[in-house]
Every structure is written in C-alpha cells, then in structure tokens.
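agent> Task received from the user: take the single chain below, predict its 3D structure, and emit structure tokens. No templates, no multimer pairing.
agent> Plan: (1) validate residues, (2) run structure prediction, (3) serialize to tokens, (4) report one or two observations.
agent> Step 1 OK, no nonstandard residues flagged.
tool_call: predict_structure(input=
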Amino acid sequence: MTVDDKGIKDLRKEYMKKLMNEDNEWDHKISAGVKEGPADCSRIAEVRAVLKKMKKYEAQDCRGW
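)
tool_result: status=success, residues=65
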C-alpha cells in the first residue's frame, strides 16, 4: 500500500497512462450531437440551492464557494 504523496502521484500517473492508452472496442451505437456556442454554466443560486439540500457533512468541502 502506497501512502506517501510521491508514490500516490506515481500510481495515479501509471493508472491514467494505462487507461488512456488502452484500445477499447466501440460499437458505434452511441452518438452525440455537436453543441455550438458557450458551455452552460451553473448559476451561483443553483449551486447554493443544491448545497442546502445536501447533508451538512457533504457540503463542508464546498464552503469556500
């Protein structure tokens, strides 16, 4: 088990390298249309409303917003 920061970073790097370089089969059944224009952004009020619905311990990491 790796517990130091460098070891964890190296493990993640190797995992992502493997994941991104694997050949995956694609059956071409799924398609997506092209979205033109700017990406949709979440409004601050929407984010606050969602955070209010979350349990206290779930929202603690998001208080800096």
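agent> Step 4: summary for the user.
The radius of gyration is 19 Å.
agent> Done.
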